[in-house]
């Protein structure tokens, strides 16, 4: 199996655990997306691959992001941001875990 296939299979296996919580897999399972009940807050989990992957070792780097549509609207009206995104928080999973360090 090619590293990309292994990576995407891994992403889809991880995604299965989040579907019950309302996340929808996008981009072949590489992105998990969920909106709050009022459609303002967007939660995303993105799985990044490593450029060092090979068939014997495939790494997954999970990133977590939280966006607000209201904040994006406010940024559009009140700031000079070229591309407002409404980003509230973004980090890799290792930095929001008790380990507080980069993890694959």
Descriptive overview:
There is one protein chain. With 104 residues, the chain is of the alpha+beta class. The protein has 2 helices and 5 strands; from the N terminus they run αββββαβ. The chain has a 5-stranded antiparallel beta sheet. Strand 1 and strand 2 form a beta hairpin. The two termini are 20 Å apart. The mean pLDDT is 92.
Essential attributes:
alpha+beta; 104 residues; single chain; globular; five-stranded antiparallel sheet
Global mean pLDDT: 92
Helical amount: 25-40%
Main pleated sheet: 5 strands, antiparallel
Number of helices: 2
Low-confidence stretches: none
Alpha-beta classification: alpha+beta
Q: Give the DSSP E fraction (strand runs of 2 or more residues).
A: 25-35%
Q: SSE string, helix = H, strand = E?
A: HEEEEHE
Question: What's a concise summary of this model?
Answer:
By secondary structure, the chain is α+β, with helices and mostly antiparallel strands. It contains two helices and five strands. Strands 1-2-3-4-5 form a five-stranded antiparallel sheet.
